[in-house]
Design a protein that fits this description.
Elements lengths: L2 H16 L15 H8 L4 H13 L5 E2 L4 H20 L9 E2 H12 L5 H14 L6 E2 L1 H11 L9 H7 L9 E2 L1 H9 L3
Antiparallel strand pairs: 1-4, 2-3
Length: 191
């Protein structure tokens, strides 16, 4: 096969893979806890509130990966830790891998100006104290990592409970994610 044909073949494969239609599952066939089914049959609307709270707890970004409810939360925590880490590394003005209080203050002055009030200076002092864990007047990479982990730990969601377990079965379009629309469709399906 010549190179242009091979290139076209490789380009065509992802396009074809995207066109695969996934079978939709019947929302009424998703098993729910018997208590939930009973409440739905009685016309209770608080079931939706209960599932909404569980959905929010498991997936703060809006979707729950079916491969495990912690995935979304772990990815979000990792991104938040990276932002903390990158923010602190900007204070290393001389690039030696250590942040000294003079660099910290100089960067704050460059960012917010030199006319900081008492409240702002107190916040900067508290931020410095939290980062300089060993009190040696310098903040190293290990201290930045510890600060980032403390500020954004990997969330522990605890046991899923019956709503969470049922929710992971609600991926009606089999795309690997549970959306709130799918949850509502399952709860609204006649039982």
């Amino acid at each position: 096969m010549n190179r242009p044909a091979l290139l076209l073949a490789l380009i065509a494969v992802p396009a074809m893979a995207q066109d695969i239609t996934r079978p939709l599952r019947d929302p009424a066939l998703v098993p729910l806890p018997i208590e939930t089914v009973t409440l739905l049959r009685l016309g209770a609307r608080n079931v939706f509130d209960s599932y909404a709270a569980t959905f929010d707890r498991l997936a703060v970004t809006g979707d729950i990966p079916v491969i495990g409810p912690r995935v979304t939360l772990e990815i979000r925590a990792a991104a938040d830790r990276a932002r903390v880490f990158l923010g602190w590394t900007q204070y290393d003005l001389d690039g030696d891998g250590m942040i000294r209080r003079t660099e910290f203050d100089r960067h704050a002055g460059m960012s917010w100006g030199d006319n900081l009030g008492v409240r702002e200076l107190a916040l900067l002092d508290a931020e410095w104290t939290a980062a300089d864990r060993n009190g040696d007047g310098e903040v190293g990479l290990d201290e930045i990592h510890a600060l980032a982990l403390e500020m954004h730990p990997v969330p522990d969601i605890g046991p899923l409970g019956p709503e969470g377990e049922a929710m992971l079965l609600m991926d009606l379009d089999n795309d690997g994610f549970v959306t709130w629309d799918e949850v509502e469709a399952v709860l609204a399906a006649p039982r």
